[in-house]
Write a structure and sequence with these properties.
Among the domains are: about 5-55; about 65-155, Phosphorylase Kinase, domain 1; about 155-345, Transferase(Phosphotransferase), domain 1 (Orthogonal Bundle). Residues about 50-65, about 225-230 and about 395-420 have low confidence and may be disordered. Strand 4 and strand 5 form a beta hairpin. The chain has 36 helices and ten strands. By secondary structure, it is of the alpha+beta class. Keywords: ATP-binding, Kinase, Nucleotide-binding, Transferase. GO terms for molecular function: ATP binding; protein serine/threonine kinase activity. It comes from Tahibacter aquaticus. This is Serine/threonine-protein kinase.
Length: about 800
Amino acid sequence: MDAAEYLRRKQHFIELLELDPAARERALDALGADDPVLAAVLRRQLAAGEVSVPLLDSTPQSLATPPQLAHYRLLRELGRGGMGQVWLAERRLGEAAQRVALKQILHGHWTEEDRRRFEREMRILAALDHPHIAPLVDAGSDERGAPFLATAYVEGERLDRHCELHGLNLVARVQLACQLADAVAYAHRQWVVHRDIKPSNILVSSDGNVRLLDFGIARLLGEDAITASGCSQLTLRYAAPEQLQGRSDAGVGSDIYSLGAVLYELLTGRSPYGELTDGKALVAAILSHSPLPPSRVGTLRGLNRDLDAICLKALRKEPQQRYLSAEALLGDLQRWLRGEAVEARRGERGYRLRSTLRQYWPWLTAMAAAAAFLVFHLYRVEQQLQQTQRERDKAKAAAAYLGQLFDAASPSETKAGTLSAQELLRRSSKRLLEQGDTIHGMGDAARGHMLNAAARVMSKQGLVDEAEPLYRRALALWLKNPAPPEDDISDGLHELGAIQYGRGDYAGALVLEQQAIARREAMGDADSYVLGVLLSNAAVYRLMLGDRKGSRADLRRAAAVLKANLPGSRANYSVTLSSLGMTELYLGNAEQGRIHLLEARAQDAELVPKRLPGRLQIDRGIAAGLRELRRDAEAEAAYAQVLADARAFYGDTHVEVARIQHSQLQLHLLRQDWPRALALIDEIRALETRLLAQNNPRLLSLQADRARIHLAHEQWAEAEALLAAVVAARGNAFAVEHSSVDAERTALAYARCRLQPAAAAQDVLAQAVVALRERPPLPHAWLALAEGWLGDCSLRVASER
């Protein structure tokens, strides 16, 4: 039996195993009508699989008990195969901790040949050091001699799912393919052929970078395969023709073919050979059929004949007709991204000329641009005249508002000193709204400027309820103008967004900020200081709504814009870097977050005059980053320093002091230093009560932290009572970041499962953990704890049955 026939039988066997007995029998009958020999073979194999063999059916002790390895703590199983298991594990060396994917060969289920293959994977990974290949961290054997290896854990999405879920455009997909080709080219330079390139072995991490995994069936160039059955481990859909035929020239060219198959799917969303599910038909198609060009089956905008040529060259049947190296494939993809001619179309008549014209088209249009410059210049002169008129309107509006302000005060009140500044502002606001659109016979634009100036003064004095209708009236007047002042409109929308944010309406704030950004962009603004500020604010609103990745994207763009406007934008650039650092902490990228926070501190240090409040917030974030990295001693020292600085600046009774202590409390909880944690909870509670009485939402967080200590001491009833009150008080009005509420609900579900183990309680806890996985809390260690709670609850429920 050749390799292709083996793969065909294997494909059918796996599909039949997944069916229930009745459906399996119907499928075998249908197959028998087409291929009675294959159907008979599969019936015998399935029947043999149902025969009980006590020695094989028993569960070995080595499988029942997870492996015990020094310096490793297993968190959960990631997967298993015929030869081994893969665990998510925490590798600890002193105070340092690192998450790894730990792969171990199963005790008693491996042959010497399996061991050699496993050890070869270790040697191959040890020789590879590339940013797009998951690196080897550790390797060895346990006390019973079973080998293991640990690679850096990549928290990400399969390549194909990542593209689909995030709706990536064509350029973004090709850029990911370039990263993959670069990794494969590097492996080939190290004389390593992967032999199993497919989307499930390619992850895209949260920072948008590709990571190539699983070199389990890789081999060194010039090295014989360990067994002839290596092709049984291939994935049929991505296997090259020479691999299916078991040919000796299945080397670098096979990886290039697999790259072509993956690229085809990224461009079209389907296999080069359609949706064939029958193994025999799929093998036949791979060996003899030519795929349709991607541009004929894909729907992505921008698919063209250049990409068709690149993809189809990689998928040619004979290895020598494909790209000679992964570097060559990478080079053509990069040329496509730059708009240059691709080598895959070399020799086509007229192609080079068309590509050259397309590449240098800007030079050919230079004369047309020069002719248009005169028209543009005249337009700019007209714009400047209009701007001058607007400035006159603003000056006139400001003078008129001063008159309105003092008209609202009687001489007797002014002389007696009985009229407060805020009352004077309220009266002027009321008069402006009552006068409507008849203020001193001004035009709409000037009246709008006057109302806007009044609203800005109100906002600065904290009179947001009085400021909001003034902002809205100003916007309405401006929008009536045939040539509305777009910069003023975007500024008004921004101010309204800040008011909504202060009220806790994060969704409303984000809508207004996005409208302001759209106005700026419609003006042609792509890099102004004002746009950077708007993007930074929108990011904060997104974060409060739980959209962490969207927040990070806005912050990255804001940081780039503000950096381009240094030094004038330094204060906002520092704040934006600080927000970006905290967002990275929420996303689990503690080291990257700390880097941004340190840069924020460096920028803040350049400001004159100094802004100690901003620096204290940055320092609190830096301490939190050290805490997330579990550099506990450094984190404790950092918290002590920032707390001392805050007290020296604000005094002992200030909300920023309370915020720092809340963050410091999480460090004590992580270290399980219960006495210090309890003492700090009492200290923070006293301070928070003095600041905001009993409706302070941070008091609920303290109550949840106290409940966490009860859980650690198995005081289930006490923990349940505290957490039930917290969750009920939260309701649907999130006054904290969403994940904190998810963590509280998870802890409550666990307490209830321990009080009354039942399937219903287990289901509630499982749903809570799913929500927590989607949006992990800060500190991130609470997610690992919640995973352990779910396993404990499951065991308790099972023991009650």
